């Protein structure tokens, strides 16, 4: 499971027609202790995650499978919104 925190949304003046109605989010990957792990990345979001939400994300072909049009040209997408997460008895949610 790859976790990240939603930082905000990305506005695209032009995007592929298969992404109509799909939001693009700026997410900050986190390690299992809730510490930033790398640079922020853009992810497609068909689940309507909000700023501050803890999410699970994926890359590759599986990313496109999360969207209404499974042939969308995306490489990263939100898979789920995490309600609660613990790591070594530390609450991440």
Search tags:
5-stranded antiparallel sheet, 1 helix, 93 residues, OB fold (Dihydrolipoamide Acetyltransferase, E2P), two-stranded antiparallel ribbon, single chain
Write up this protein.
- The structure is a single chain.
- The chain is mainly β and 93 residues long.
- It has one domain: EutN/Ccml (OB fold (Dihydrolipoamide Acetyltransferase, E2P), Beta Barrel), CATH 2.40.50.
- The chain has one helix and seven strands.
- The strands form two sheets. A five-stranded antiparallel beta sheet has the order 3-2-1-4-5. A two-stranded antiparallel sheet has the order 6-7.
- Strand 6 and strand 7 form a beta hairpin.
- The longest helix is centred in the last third of the chain and has 4 residues.
- It is elongated and about 45 Å long.
Quick one: CATH superfamily? EutN/Ccml
Structural class label: mainly beta
Strand order of the largest sheet: 3-2-1-4-5
Q: Give the % helix.
A: under 10%
Offer a concise description of the structure.
The chain is mainly β and 93 residues long. It has one helix and seven strands; from the N terminus they run E-E-E-E-H-E-E-E.
Secondary structure elements and pairings:
Layout: E1 2-10, E2 23-30, E3 41-45, E4 54-59, H1 61-64, E5 76-81, E6 86-87, E7 90-91
Antiparallel strand pairs: 1-2, 1-4, 2-3, 4-5, 6-7
């Amino acid at each position: 499971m790859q976790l990240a925190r939603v930082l905000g949304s990305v506005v695209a003046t032009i995007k592929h027609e298969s992404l109509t109605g799909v939001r693009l989010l700026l997410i900050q990957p986190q390690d299992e202790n809730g510490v930033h792990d790398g640079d922020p990345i853009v992810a497609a979001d068909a689940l309507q995650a909000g700023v501050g939400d803890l999410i699970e994300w994926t890359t590759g072909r599986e990313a496109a499978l999360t969207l209404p049009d499974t042939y969308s040209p995306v490489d990263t997408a939100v898979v789920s919104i995490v309600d609660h997460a613990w790591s070594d008895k530390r609450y991440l949610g």
